[in-house]
Amino acid sequence: MFKKIEIWILYLIILLSILFAIGFGFLVRQELVGGIKLGWVSKTALTLAEIPVNIKKILDGPGDLTVEDRFPNLDGFNGTPNSEESYILLSRYDGDLREGVVELVDLTTFKVLHTWNPDIDAFNDLVEQTNEFKYLQRDANNSRHMLYHPVLTNKGNLIFMAQNAPLRKIDACSNLAFQNTHDGFHHSIETDIDGNIWTSTHMYPQSLPIEKVGRITPVENGFKDDAIVKLSPDGEILYEKSISRIFIENNMESRLSMVGTSHTFQIDPIHVNDIQPINIDGKYWKKGDVFISLGHQSMIILWRPSTEEIVWKYESNIFHQHDVNIVSEHQISIFNNNRKYYYPNKDIVDGNNQILIFNFDTDSISSYLSKSLISEDVRTISEGRSHILPNGDLFIEESNYARTLFFNEDGSLRWVHVNRANDGNVYRVAWSRILFTKEDIKTVNNFLTNKRACNE
């Protein structure tokens, strides 16, 4: 039988437990945000506090890289191959290998011509595990890392990133050429006519004053100081600018406090998800300008680095949009997620995604192949990519459901790809890129002609 415990002893235990919890929480907070760290004591407290999260990450394995199976009858490529020479850098999580890969696929045959499968763990070992890369080994190891928005360079190298990981370049044999660890990079990668790389980072320390945004790292739920970055082909940073600073300097500071309705500090008010460099002068833009998609602002801006000014912005009837592309000398396309928040706490696509075309000549916007997107029920809540080809064909990645679609100019579906593994599950894709321009095809052909054999 259990002995009775004096009531005062029980109360004392409760009081001491409360005091211990408060003290433990204080130590964890000091390690995360405190101006004064408490050495091994606060570090140990934080390590203990993170045990449940780390165990969950380990037990999850690649399970959280699966997506809802909306298309149980589809596996791989289905449909009619393209008649004109074109390729896709298909970035996907290979559920059989349990690794992220990029495949160069010939869209006239659906044949895989080359595969990149780098040793991410070896790359991570070269990164100092501090600040924004503290959880790199846990969250972006070889079994969890996806190769986001790959770019094939004219020298046959592949540039990619994971979200909030280093920007990396590898050769045809997946050997590391460089990795930039200046900050955690994220979302899109584009190259300009000079081969420079445009992408985005979360600046740390943040460029805004500490009394405004604190100094917690982005990976620990600190303020995400989104910045656009221009790097040389060799990975050296040539230009960097905080979007928050851009807003402040262009009389838009109020925008930093407008996201959400909770009246609390917003850690991610900008959310850059695409940067599109401009390569030639035009009536409405200049070479060196960039279009930037700001997801949490539901806004597209045209930024001029040479004068540090926003020369144009659009924010009407777009909702958490993503990809922005130049269609012609007076048109851009926008992948509009049409994502909205409904009561109570519903995060949905209102109907379907849209491909919108903004016409600078007429200052108007229109929808492209809307009936096709409705017919195929395209509705990724987040992410999403699109590209209108010169002949009017349309490429779409429905990222949340690992489905890639290609429509003919008349709106008919030509082919579709779903990233299904042998275990029957559908796994994530990571912003694949269609290659169709003369420059793209020349790059691919040079790569295939000159690539060397790799040691197995």
Explain what you see.
The protein has 456 residues and is of the alpha+beta class. The chain has nine helices and 28 strands. It has helices at residues 7-33, 39-49, 51-60, 120-124, 136-139, 210-213, 243-249, 370-375, 438-450; strands at residues 66-67, 76-79, 87-94, 99-106, 111-116, 148-152, 158-161, 165-170, 176-191, 197-203, 225-231, 237-242, 272-277, 290-294, 299-304, 309-314, 324-328, 331-336, 339-342, 346-349, 354-359, 364-367, 385-388, 394-398, 403-407, 413-418, 426-427, 433-435. It has a seven-stranded antiparallel sheet with strand order 6-7-8-9-10-11-12. Strand 25 (403-407) and strand 26 form a beta hairpin. Helix 1 (7-33) crosses helix 2 (39-49). The longest helix has 27 residues, at 7-33. The chain is globular. It starts with 6 loop residues before the first helix and ends in a 6-residue tail after the last helix. The model is unreliable at 55-61 (pLDDT under 50).
**Rg value:** 24 Å
* Terminal Cα span: 67 Å
Structural classification: alpha+beta
What share of the residues lie within helices? Answer: 10-25%
Shape, principal axes of CA atoms: globular
DSSP summary: helix tally: 9
Strand order of the largest sheet: 6-7-8-9-10-11-12
Mean pLDDT: 90
Strand content: 25-35%
Number of strands: 28
Parts with pLDDT < 50 across at least 5 consecutive residues: 55-61
Q: State the major sheet.
A: 7 strands, antiparallel
